[in-house]
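Changelog note: in this version the structure field was regenerated for every chain. One regenerated record is shown below for reference.
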Amino acid sequence: MRSLFLSVLILLFPVLALADTIRETVPANRASAVGSHATYGPDCGGGVIPKMKVTRQPKNGSVSFQQITRTLSEKAGRCAGRPVKGTVVIYTPNRGFRGEDVFNVRFTMDMHTYGTAKIRNISNKYIVQVK
């Protein structure tokens, strides 16, 4: 029984480690970008655009996605300045709403590392303060 528990714990741990909470402040009555996701490889070329899905809808607004081409920031090291395609998460509050709203977005992407193909699932929680 203990070995089964440890096996389940080991399988669940990577999923739990792949979740972030993102906090953003946005203006009322206007759509705002609150996050973005893109992939690139060791050659700095763009990867497959992640598949995005809202898994928990906001109570006081809506979420949409827009595909864009973006330049990698200095955090990308030697790939900084290179263009990649990605997806922007856009939150639009209901007209007149001010306060906190919460939603979750899951994205999946294919990963090819060391000759193996894997699908990576990541779920982010967004806490948006509308002012």
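Spot check on this record: The first strand starts at residue 19 and ends at 26. The CA atoms of residues 69 and 85 lie 4 Å apart.
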